Amino acid sequence: MSHDDDSPEERRRVELKIKNLILRFYYERRSNPIFFCDELRVFVSRNGALVAPASPDRILRMLRQQGHLDYKVTDRTQSEYTFFYQEA
Predict the structure, then answer these.
(1) Neighbours of 77 (CB within 10 A)
(2) Distance CA 19, CA 72 (A)
(3) How many angstroms separate the CA atoms of 23 and 43, rounded?
């Protein structure tokens, strides 16, 4: 018996949902760019993406590598980050 929620299509769908939520989090944080990774995880889970705890972190890194957003780890021990925004 196969698990539909383990298919490549389902993984891509979930990844896309997480990407969109992280980008929304990024734009909504413009006036307060400092955040803790737990805030990102909570935002993703409260907005309907049931995912492994490390998934938002991984996708956040991927979005930075792809040039969709920028951030810096400002306190590694506290998992504190700061987003950077380009002026239009």
Answers:
(1) 5
(2) 18
(3) 11
Residue whose entry in the numeric block shows the structure tokens 């990774």: 37
State pTM to two decimals: 0.84
Q: What is the per-residue pLDDT across 10-42, written as a single tens digit (0 to 9) for each?
A: 778 888 899 999 999 999 999 999 999 999 999
**What is the C-alpha separation between 65 and 7, in angstroms, rounded?**
25
Contacts of 72 (CB under 8 A, 6+ apart): 81, 82, 84
Pairwise CA distance, residues 79 & 38, whole Å: 8
Sign of the torsion angle spanned by Cα atoms 48, 59, 17, 25: positive
Which residues make beta-bridge pairs with 25? none
